[in-house]
Amino acid sequence: MNEKTIRKSRGIATIFLIVIIMMTYLSAVITNFNLAEGLATIPKALGWIGANLIITPETWERLPSILDKLFETIFMSIAATTLAAVVSIFLGLMGSKTTKVNGVLSVISRGVASFSRNIPVVAWSLILLISFGQNSVTGFLALFVGTLGFLTRAFIESIDEASQSAVEALRATGATYFHIVNKAVIPQTLPQMLSWILFMIETNIRSATLVGILTGTGIGFTFDLYYKTLNYNAVALVTLTIIIAVIIIEMISNRIRKVIL
Asked: Considering the entire predicted model, what is its pTM?
């Protein structure tokens, strides 16, 4: 790389940095955010946490009911992710340039992925809450729709990045569409697909807590109930169980990724 190219790259990076700083400053001015005041409140906030979020011996008696709701949240997240993955595989095959059947289905698949992916899970929860009410179905559907868009997009990209040599070889021999998908596409992309599915399970377990607050289900509802009744000791225990569950699931997921990738 010559000196002129290096200077050009540095100039572009400098301009980009200046733009980011200006955008940050304007955002702070528009939202009336004061960094100094924000930093000054940290010690007070930490003091409140230390004084109130304490797990007492009496609070541990609530652990069985908390774990029951936590497992409900985990299983709902896994179920929503698994079902979304099955549908996403079909949409991914239809949307990929490598395996698309026709242009219409490809546009529809990519449109579904873009539409559902660009609306946050929280927004889906509020939209579905109006139709289905405050129940576990609403939470399940919110996670399902959000996951569907993300996985469809990820599967399309994984299939597009797969090697074309095996696909072209099978096409040259007159293999059927399903044979090409089964023998050439799926074997190449399956490890990546499984990795994306595991990632979404982790993400959905975190998201399900917030979704549960809105839909009145799972560990999110339990957290909201204790918080609104000012039972901060129970809130601390709920928070602790969520953190431990997420860490354990992330460790298991990372272990599985190392095996399949």
From this structure: 0.79
